[in-house]
Design brief:
alpha/beta; Rossmann fold; 2 domains; 6-stranded mixed sheet; 4-stranded parallel sheet; 13 helices
Length: 318
Amino acid sequence: MRIVSLLASATEMVAALGCTEQLVGRSHECDYPPEVQRLPALSRPVIDINTSSAGIDAQVRQLAGTRQRGNAAALQALSIYQIDVSRLQELQPDVILTQTQCEVCAVSERDVSEAVRQLTGLQPRIVSLAPYRLSDVWEDLRRVGAALGREAEAEALIASYQRRLEQLRQRCARLSAERGQPPRVAILEWLDPLMGSGNWTPELVACAGGEPVLSAGGQHAPWVSWDELRQADPEVLILSPCGFDVERTRQDASLLQQHPSWPTLRAVREGHVYLIDGNHYLNRSGPRLVESAELIALALWGERAEVPLPAEGWQPLG
């Protein structure tokens, strides 16, 4: 079986299922496990992603506005990503993995369907993932396992992930009970403009013994005003922009620090602001969501959370 994965989390699922050697192509974002980076990248962004949060947001809004006008230009701006159809034809995949969850975050099912229509003599199976909650992530892993003939392996992985999360939940629940109440936690998925966290992230916060604020499980991440952030006044603030690693997040965090409301936040005053790699962890709906919950627990409880101290992916803002 020849597999093309155009979604980073799906690539991690393929690897966890023991099928890395069957991968023949990937998206430009698929970078884990490291060995997949030797595969040809079949997608590229049509916007400049090497700019600020505000700059990326402006480009996405411009594309979205062009779509809404419904003119000829809209036909050229149907996606933030382009797929290399010629290379896809050469690779002759049997299965293509993609997603319907967010057209901004990754190559979408619509992008893939359009590319497949241009192929000659090929009818690959398209498996499209659509996670909103943790249960959806596990169901997606089942679907990938079924497509690759690895159903039993998928079930074993899901059981191990759920067991590990439950163990974390029990440890952190005891810490929360000792404290008297769970710490109130806000996670920002974008920094300029502000965006809270959604989908599975509130569940991860709860697993780590926290009370999520500015977020609702199973729903897309909401835009947040500074007034709303001030009113929520979280005890712990985690910055984890989608697609950004820790160093990139630190660069954009300076924009928050310049805002007059920044020093008024409790998390800032008490030194409880943390950076988590939003590209590899919180916003990547694959196996490492377990590690994501552990990183949140580390931010909330420190060594009392009894999780391995990561070499990367997490830092106090300082």
